[in-house]
Amino acid sequence: MHSDKIPTLSSKARLKFDQARQKPVLLYPEGLLFLNQTAYKILLLCDGKRKVDDIVTELSKEYSIERVEMEKDIWDFILTLCERGFIQLN
User: Fold this and answer.
1) What is the per-residue pLDDT across 31-87, written as a single tens digit (0 to 9) for each?
2) Which of 42, 60, 62, 71 is the most buried (most CB within 10 A)?
3) 8 A C-beta contact, residue 56 and residue 70
4) Of the candidates 11, 13, 87, 12, which has an alpha carbon nearest to the alpha carbon of residue 50?
5) Are 63 and 56 in contact (CB under 8 A)?
6) DSSP one-letter string for 8-75
7) Beta bridge partner(s), residue 14
8) What DSSP character marks residue 10?
9) CA separation for the pair 85, 78 (Å, rounded)
10) Are strands 14-18 and 23-28 parallel, antiparallel or unpaired?
């Protein structure tokens, strides 16, 4: 894994808060994806400025969980969204 990669939301994806359902969502041309709070926080941090390593560090502090325990899950999430074209890694 390349922790120095910088994830950014692709131009076809947008983060929004669905007022009707009171849930965060990821909007894209073909539909939407409902997000849990952790997924939403990860995507908020995919701002084109932070490296994946920075995101892991920030969330491990926020949740008081060891980095090593979170890193794989965060990478799996980011890579899944990359495969679907919602995130770009630079």
Assistant:
1) 999 999 999 999 999 999 999 999 999 999 999 999 988 999 999 999 999 999 999
2) 42
3) yes
4) 87
5) no
6) EE-TT-EEEEETTTTEEEEEETTEEEE--HHHHHHHHH-BSSS-HHHHHHHHHHHHT--HHHHHHHHH
7) 27
8) -
9) 10
10) antiparallel
